[in-house]
Write a structure and sequence with these properties.
Strand content: under 5%
Shape: globular
Low-confidence stretches: 1-7
Number of strands: 0
Mean pLDDT: 81
Helix content: over 70%
Largest sheet: none
Number of helices: 5
Distance between the termini: 27 Å
Length: about 100
């Protein structure tokens, strides 16, 4: 898992690629939807499907999936468990700190 700064840079890089601030969240939500009925094959098959549906080019997909791997998401389920889980924990920490 990367440092907090590396995680922030990865998320910013993903957002910059599409020019949409919520791309990262849309990707995770789309992957969660697909994984409700699909299984993880230890690869990025479902993640690529979601990114393709979102209109991402192959080059952009490669960069996004590389960012996911850097954050501990080495397959479809790893993205959801490690990357999404970390985002939820980070959001909770920020919420508690600002309360």
């Amino acid at each position: 898992m990367g440092t907090k700064a590396e995680v922030d840079r990865s998320e910013t890089a993903i957002e910059d690629r599409a020019g949409e601030p919520d791309l990262f969240g849309d990707f995770l939500m789309g992957l969660m939807d697909v994984m409700e009925t699909a299984s993880c094959g230890g690869d990025f098959k479902n993640a690529r499907q979601v990114l393709t549906t979102m209109g991402m080019s192959s080059d952009d997909q490669a960069g996004i999936l590389e960012s996911m791997e850097e954050r501990g998401g080495h397959c479809d389920c790893g993205i959801l468990v490690n990357v999404a889980g970390d985002m939820i924990r980070d959001a909770e920490e920020k919420r508690r700190a600002s309360a």
